[in-house]
């Protein structure tokens, strides 16, 4: 139990975790602006996917098995692509309101994507 808590503390100090958490916060902030007709399809899916990203990252970070870690990274990347598509749809439909919010979200997704790719590449060597 104590060992897991130490690992979780380490997870929460990594840059990719912090960026993914910021992305979750942004998603939570923008989903109330999504029209009612799409709130439970697009909005809920964005929120659920964002939470799943954190779960997959934590699972990848905490496992010692390289193949298991790669599996979680691949799951993260698949979920991440889904979230980016949903964000793109929300942006194109002007559901993301506020000066520069959409740009901040895109910047975060770019940053997270690069970090995840670098991590996976480091494991593939």
UniProtKB/TrEMBL annotation:
<dbReference type="Pfam" id="PF22296">
    <property type="entry name" value="bAvd"/>
</dbReference>
<feature type="domain" description="bAvd-like">
    <location>
        <begin position="15"/>
        <end position="122"/>
    </location>
</feature>
<dbReference type="InterPro" id="IPR055360">
    <property type="entry name" value="bAvd"/>
</dbReference>
<dbReference type="InterPro" id="IPR036583">
    <property type="entry name" value="23S_rRNA_IVS_sf"/>
</dbReference>
<protein>
    <submittedName>
        <fullName>Four helix bundle protein</fullName>
    </submittedName>
</protein>
